[in-house]
Amino acid sequence: MSSSADAPRTATARRIAGLALPALVVLAAEPLYVLVDTAVVGHLGPVPLAAVAIGGTVMSMGVWFGTLMAYGTTGRAARRFGAGDRAGAVGEGVQASWLALGLGVLLAVLGTVASEPLAAVIAGDPETAAAAAGWLRIAVLGAPGLLLAAAGNGWMRGVQDTRRPLWIVLGANVLSAVLCPVLVYPAGLGLTGSAIANVTAQTLGGLLFLAALIRETRELRPIPSVIVRQLVLGRDLLIRGAAFQACFLSAAAVAARFGVASVGAHQIVLQLWFFAALVLDAVAIAAQSLVGAALGAGDTDEARDVARRVTLAGGLAAVGFALAMLAGSSVIPRLFSPDASVHAQAAIIWPWFVALLPVAGIVYALDGVLIGAGDVAFLRTLTVVSALFGFLPAIWLAYALDLGLGGVWAGLGLFTFARFAGLTWRWRSPHWLITGASR
Questions:
Q1: Under a CB-based contact definition with an 8 Å cutoff, are residues 260 and 47 in contact?
Q2: Angle at CA of residue 99, ends 94 and 101, nearest 5°
Q3: What is the pTM of this model?
Q4: What sign for the dihedral angle of Cα 351, 355, 357, 363?
Q5: 276-309 pLDDT tens trace
Q6: Is-contact 376 434, C-beta < 8 A?
Q7: Which of 60, 64, 158, 335 has the fewest Cβ atoms within 10 Å of its own Cβ atom?
Q8: Are 387 and 407 in contact (CB under 8 A)?
Q9: How far apart are CA 356 and CA 318, in angstroms?
Q10: Which whole-number Å values give the CA distances from 278 to 107, 271, 340, 431, in the listed order?
């Protein structure tokens, strides 16, 4: 029950929009840049497009760790902020930033060393693998900046500040979007120019978030015990993210084995899917902040109200996005590649893409609610079960039976519906409503 019968309502539509709209720009900036990058590289030919698809899939592991940083830090910081401890909320950001820096450097080193074998395993085709490895060796150097930016986003969302991240992320990505076509074409760097533009955006963003943290607090020393606690608390998000990575890496590998045109089409539609996911996640970011703050203050009624409003908003927004994608089905793929074989493969999976979006909108919203509540153990289990018994068997069966990209995206549909069923059940239960400054 609520800690106070007349507790002030903060989960109004205006409050949610005030947090969600700046977060929307932040979330959209990175995938928009990836879409620009895909379009620029796509006009170099199907092999460079496939190379970016493979290299980008490997780099998504860095994005996975970044999501862990941002979402885990948001939940912890929001609970402290809701309990009246802003300094403690910022302190979570300091320790998350140290963790991000160390992990980012480690990823950069490992990615540089392992770029060739990773690309070879995923690509199958030697020409595509060589191009992907060359792109990846440079792009992976942006990992420290990528993770520092994620940690910065996390603590700022926790204290309900989504405006500063807007300007930081937008500025870095606009600069990189301008650099990408210039480096690829007039400068004649091709795929190398694409990778350099990626590193530029990620490094600049990380440095700007780090500067904002230094202006916020003087307590910048690392505290190993807190960092270890963050790692322990983040293990469920880590396992959940590993399940996602296993799914999408497997999907890329299967798509690659259906040919260059198939993996190119898969890259285009998958990036649009990720773009939709992150845009629709804007209301979920608001949910993380508001649910965490409400439970930190002991107000379960407010937490329930946020969950209800966010779920409705997520579903409606996803329907709107699906209608836009349906209307552009014959035009959008041509923006990313002039190749007719890529267009033909994209047409096969486009109906799956459009049909799954409304369900996914609700799934993303409820993910945000439960992450804000700290109920990540349930999310871990649900995601792993959905991957092991849904997505992975379906896509490898599609490969065995030569079902093409339609089979791969049928697996994605099974994965999405399994998560939808589990999340709606959990939402209707009281198990996620645990109050206090920490969980």
A1: yes
A2: 95
A3: 0.75
A4: negative
A5: 887 788 888 888 888 888 888 888 888 888 888 8
A6: no
A7: 335
A8: no
A9: 9
A10: 23, 10, 29, 27
